[in-house]
Amino acid sequence: MRTLRKVAGRELAVFFATPAAFIFFGTFLAATLFIFFWVETFFSRNIADVRPMFEWMPLLLIFLSAAITMRIWSEEHRAGTLEPLLTAPVGLPTLVGGKFAACFGLVAIGLLLTLPLPITVSLLGQLDWGPVLGGYLASLCLAAAYLAIGLFVSAQFNSQIVSLIVTTLICSVLYLVGANTLTAFFGSQVGELLKLIGAGSRFASITRGVIDLRDLAYYLSLTAIFLTLNVYTLERQRWAGNPVNPAHRRWRVLTGLLVANFFLLNLWLAPLGILRVDLTQGSIYSISPATRSYLARLQEPLLIRGYFSAQTHPLLAPLQPQLRDLLREYEVAGKGRVKVEFVDPQEKPELEQEAGEKYGIRPVPFQTASRYQTAVTNSYFDILIKYGDEYATLGFRDLIEIKSEGDTKLAVELRNPEHDITRMIKKVLYSYQSGGNLFAAINGPVTFHGYISPPARLPQQLAELKKSLDAVLAEFKQQAGDKLMIEINDPDEGGGQLATQLNQKFGMQPMMAGLLSPQTFWFYMTLESGGQDIQITLPAALDKAALKAAITAGLKRFSKGMLKTVALSVPAANPGMAQFGMSGQNNTFQLLQGFIEQEHRVKPVDPSTGQVDPEADILVVAAPERLQEKQVFAIDQFLMQGGTVILATAPFDVGFQGRISAEEKQSGLADWLAGYGIKVQKSLVLDPQNGAFPVPVERQAGGYTVRETYLLNYPYFIDIRNDGMNRDSGLLTGLDQLSMTWASPIKVDSEQNKGRQVVRLLESSKNAWLSDSIDIQPDFNRYGQAGFAQGEPAGRQLLAVLVEGVFDSRFKGKTSPLLEEAIQRAKKEQQPPPADPSDPRNKKNTETEPAKPEVIGRVLERSSDSARIILLASNTFLADTSLELASGASGSRYLNPLQLVTNCIDWSLADRDLLSIQGRGHFARTLLPMDKEERMWWEYLNYGLAAVGLLVVWGLHRLIRTRSRRRELMSIAGRA
User: Higher confidence at residue 238 or residue 574?
Assistant: First the structure.
């Protein structure tokens, strides 16, 4: 080992004694920086990663390795020093190992000089260091293979130039064999084989942040093979010209055996796909415990079938092996409960017919271009997940994320494959279980509490409903066994003590069928399990089916294995009438509905009925407008049932017809929120920490108005980063950045919310300011490049808040708006108001006229402590138009606002396994907002750091050169 270090030290000293070190490292750094900032346009990509550097690293390492190794043996040939080396008392493996270690050290120094780039990126955004470490490890492994090839080639020639050219050619061929450019010309089987042989595909795998033992073994084997051949080449030169003897044959056999063993090592490791380490933040390429928990719930075989075409788009081809490896891990984690298949439908017509007719999977036409022509390729890139008779599919649009890198280049990668696949497994599992025994998915016992008056005191329809309730409870009891306990009590018995307790706990009051009815009664229902109370709403249709559906919806809230129902209320689409100059509805929410439907059952609701659908587990209200008393009552009573209400509302709305315009918008919920100490102020938040936004700008050209669109930093487009996110809440898992468009500040009265939990979810930066102006169009003539007047910083502004606890109804002590409406309608129709049908005076009406549904004057006056309000103070940030504009500005699909809503839904429904997987998600980690001057400063800083590194190399060169001359002078003086 000491001799090896001496050989390596001598080679390093020789290299640094000449200006070659400075030239090589300078060229390598200049090429790296030019590619990173100019060719790949790092700042315009706006993504916090260093992938562009590692994408070009294989090509840069080819030339760097060839340049370093070209003189190692060729110079010894030319100078005539090879024979003394070969006859020196040093073993050839030690000699080769020392020279290889020196070359490897030089490459390591070159890579070390690039370290300021990832450090800079980490300061500008949330950098995942896993792929960075993987990239540097892959670069060192690939460089080792290239250096071994270069040493072997250098030993064959006495010309450095010939060695440089031959090494470059061999390394280039080795890299291109597995590159997508070449494998795209072949089928999937041949392409997979070429990727196993080539160095490029394995390099890309490690740079993802996944260290696979097979990839490391490949590079180590390649390095060992060419170092072995190098030793054998030198040994042949040592005994060149001598007669062949048994020792020579032993060298050949030993060399052949070593090469064969290194080759066979790769074949032996090829099937082992589980020996790997995931370095990415959150281990996004590995099976998580949450996924394993879903797989452990499987009672029947789960089928996962990948439909992948051999001929596909070149950008999708590299993703197929990643998905195959991940799906095989699902099969292993399933422990026999998961079956994974891969098929090419175009090779199996019967499976292609089944995929299209039964599952709706059809090929997608992709336009591809070759050197000679443009063609259209119809290919499959789909995944089927089937459990029992339930199934779900994922297409390429569901699995990939497309990012714009510059004007013409696109990057395609898997967004978060485990989350997407597990989400569908959860969906089919819950859908299947929803059709089975409801109580099988409930862990603890459930108690049904009925607070109901005797039938003689009930209105006729409720008396009939009580009979239906008994029948429904009997059915549930038969299913549940000991898991369901039933308690029905009359609150007026025992001196009304129970009625007093119900009023204090739930705010329950006796009901009445009409204002003029003197008789009151009780008909309330609750479910209790694990210390949680859920109030069962009285269905609008007073029949057995509606009652069973309402109780079933309540029971599902206690279950962990049932598909949940999300009630979604959005403004009705208004197409407008352009012929009369009337524009349609600006804000639609199709993307929001589709995103929620990926995990839950979505049920559009209209609060104007005065009641939220009893099946709803959670209520989402986006951009409400001029809600009437009955609509507010519906939302209020859902909250009183212990439900969660997610609101996206603000005092302003924004239009996008040519020119950006804002207008005041009355939601109808301001007074309701104010009753709970929550107020959305009538102003807009502007923040210097903002995102780019395509803003239409008008300019005058000779009396003619020209309208142009510019991508500008827009202060109303608030860019919220980690310092403005409450990570402890659990609702922001998987989100590294969030944009709030045209948001208003929230004020929460701490006095009114004593006893409730208040969580500040999202905040602006501390330099944000407020404006009550509705002029949101930038004025560059008046305010220069900023476009807006810079206001005084108002500190961090609250933009999203969670309030949880016990709420008193706004309608406490008041008559139900439903009953008031019925009375007004009766007056208009000149009919008597609703009265007690049990009154003999009203019997003649029921005999001669068909019975009309009764309106029960029921108001839930107090909620349980599980009730929540989640308020997001913006009407627009969930709208389709805002999301599309943000996607255009970022160069990728921008879905973070939608992910926030689904996080809130999963967190509120206590189904948080997917949240843990989402935290491992591969979302675009964007850079911090910066202007042009700041970006130039960071770029020039890296140029300066590179120059400092080169100065260090130059200083090392001068130091070694000085020491070398001193030794020469001392040697001359000693001889004299």
Answer: 238
